[in-house]
Specification:
45% of the residues lie in helices and 17% in strands. It has 15 helices and twelve strands. Helix 3 packs parallel to helix 7.
């Protein structure tokens, strides 16, 4: 099309939506605090609802909250009028989305929330709307133009809804003290689940550890190194503490007269180690940073496992 500049259009859309997000951020205040505290105090679920594009956003917000430890579900506003209101309990909180606040499909849900004194949090752009007036807590979207100009299709408004949902979910997550270990419980599959597995989940245990005493001659240390096939051998003191590590690099540095040395004389002291409770992602970061392929896993200075970069690869971390 003559005169059409796709990049210019794309930049206009992103700038329009970014400006609206800045307005939304600047406007956050007491109502947002009240919304987070209401969600935190709830003994039930966060019931997210909406219709059309707002319904799609509500479904995503419910999924985000559920994955970060806040029991949440999506109820379609139209289906709610045909029996799904029974899915909403008196211990729940309703989070309703509508740009105009006048979606007629929301009427029965709003009336139901009022009848049973179920807290209602509204995300809308119109305070003096059916939804805005019914809300116990109003999260007002800024009066920002849609990125589609005269067509006025939902673009900026849904971006604002999505971002505000993320802000609620993250604030609630931090209010509850939700940790990466908690997050892992809800994400056992895929690369994300692999990154959130612990070193203890992936390491080779005590029976597979390549270990040798400090006093052992290098001939014995090399035999252990060859048998265990990790490309390294841990060196332990008489009381079982990991004091050093021997790798191919150490062997090259002591090539002359190698067999005349003990393991304690050849080893690199105070090797880099990791705890079994550390995340697999942390182990990968350490390996990448130090350019190593193996980590001993220790508890109170004693070796309890070993982790090879191939273990991370097999688990899908890499």
């Amino acid at each position: 099309m003559s005169g059409f500049d796709a990049v210019a259009v794309g930049r206009r859309v992103l700038t329009t939506e970014a400006d609206a997000l800045t307005q939304l951020s600047d406007a956050l205040g007491e109502s947002f605090v009240r919304a987070v505290e209401t969600l935190f105090a709830s003994k039930g679920r966060v019931v997210c609802t909406g219709i059309g594009k707002s319904g799609h956003v509500a479904r995503k917000i419910a999924a985000t909250m559920a994955s970060t430890g806040a029991p949440a579900m999506f109820v379609h506003a139209a289906e709610a009028s045909h029996g799904d209101l029974g899915m909403i309990g008196q211990d729940d909180v309703v989070l309703a989305l509508s740009k105009s606040g006048e979606a007629r499909e929301l009427s029965d849900t709003l009336a139901y929330a009022k009848r049973f004194s179920i807290p209602l949090i509204a995300i809308t752009a119109v305070a003096d709307s059916q939804l805005g007036r019914a809300a116990d807590i109003l999260l007002l979207l800024p009066d920002a133009p849609e990125a589609t100009a005269e067509v006025n299709a939902p673009t900026t408004s849904t971006t604002l809804q999505m971002a505000l949902g993320d802000a609620l979910a993250v604030a609630l997550l931090e209010r509850r003290g939700f940790t990466a270990s908690d997050f892992r419980i809800f994400h056992p599959g895929g690369k994300l689940g692999a990154m959130l597995r612990t070193v203890g989940d992936l390491m080779h245990g005590a029976g597979e550890l390549p270990l040798t005493p400090e006093s052992a001659p290098m001939s014995e240390a090399l035999l252990v190194m060859s048998e265990k096939r990790f490309g390294a051998v841990g060196v332990i003191s008489s009381d079982g503490m990991l004091t050093g590590l021997i790798t191919d690099g150490d062997l090259r540095r002591h090539m002359d007269g190698l067999m005349g040395h003990t393991a304690g004389e050849v080893m690199t002291r105070s090797p880099l180690t990791i705890s079994p409770g550390a995340l697999a992602a942390e182990a990968l970061a350490l390996m990448n940073e130090r350019r190593i392929t193996v980590l001993f896993v220790v508890e109170r200075g004693r070796p309890v496992g070993i982790l090879h970069v191939h273990d991370l690869l097999r688990a899908g971390v890499i």
